[in-house]
Amino acid sequence: MKACVGWRRFLFCFPLIFILPHLFSVLELHHDQTVGDALKENSKKLDDQSSAVGDAPKKNNKKFDHLVLGPAAGESLPNRLQCQGVKALNKTHFSNPSHASGVADAIAFVTVFTIYNNSPDTLVNSRSSSNLVTVGNASFSKSERSMAILNVFINFIQVRMPQSKVIILTDPESDLPVQRKGVTVHPIQGEYSRDKLMLQRIRSYITFLEIRLEKLSEEQGRITHFIITDSDIAVIDDLGQIFGKYQNFHLALTFRNNKYQPLNSGFIAVRGTRDGILRAKIFLQKVLEIYSSRYMNASRMLGDQLALAWVIKSDPSFDAKRFSKAQAFIKEIGGASVLFLPCATYNWTPPEGAGQFHGMPLDVKVVHFKGSRKRLMLEAWNFFSSSSDISDMLCLILKSGRTKYDF
Fold first, then answer.
1. What is the mean pLDDT for each group of 10 consecutive residues in the chain (407 residues)?
2. CB contact at 8 A, 208 and 242
3. Which residues contact 228 (CB under 8 A, 6 or more apart)?
4. I want to staple 152 with a disulfide (CB 3.0 to 4.6 A). Which of 5, 78, 107, 381 is the partner?
């Protein structure tokens, strides 16, 4: 090294050979300690955050026996119902129930309904105070509240679509106390046990369509289109326009942006022509076949929806990405022209309204009180009966979207 020429410089530089490595070691140790302290601090913060999450109150799964309202989803969003309390600040887009939908053909709603444990002894015991639920000024046993839901289902149809008929498919052993104008009880043989009801529902639909095919040759003139639904829905607006607005479909299904359960079987529309009924029947037979062979472990619940999704997605030309946008479209599936309608409008539900639907669209036509929201269906009808304002009633439903009830 030129810097260490000569003995004096050599003697001066020689100790540095030993001192510098130690100096670097000290500096490195100090750096490691600094980094280590930083890591410990970050680790402590993560632990604190984890502890905070762990200490946070768990989601309340309590089910309520009275009306509970919360914030209304969709606040400040365009084309969504806006509420102040249970007062609508903007109005939903409804047709006048007194006017025809523009479709000359008749509309009939079809639902499957049965009552369990309706023997005289069971009915007497069910009236004990411990088995009663109270909604408004009325108290119901289990069977009575089921009948109350069915009657409210009919009420909404007769108010919003007064020219429509209602057909109830049921177990021949069920003695349904339904005697209302425009309502027909149609017994269909089958297995209506709780564990097999979802499976039987599809079988009943198929049998009903087969009967309608046979009667078509006997009937002349006016066509009747069918809207097959669960009995826990409220028809909010005229649905007959579906058959006029979309001319080229055989059956209609409702979809949502859900990877595993994109289709909800609670709403199926069938065009009342011979071709429409026949192709809808064949389509449902395929769904039944898949249900019976693949999803019997889900026969009590969801099996029908899983089978529907399988039939649709198994079509090689079908693009499931279309479910991500709430826009109606038509696709040929297995020889049937299928109209896909967005659940946000044609099968709106309170929990999804508070979630992925981001509130309630102003053009909503069907509200589906699935799951633990049957009480809310009765409460909504009571509210509408006293106020006659459909938009305000929808605010009540929207603000209760996050609440689970005792039935």
1. 46 48 42 40 37 39 91 94 96 71 83 79 59 93 94 98 97 91 96 92 98 86 93 97 95 95 96 97 98 90 93 96 96 97 97 90 96 96 95 97 93
2. no
3. 109, 110, 111, 205, 267, 268, 269, 270
4. 381
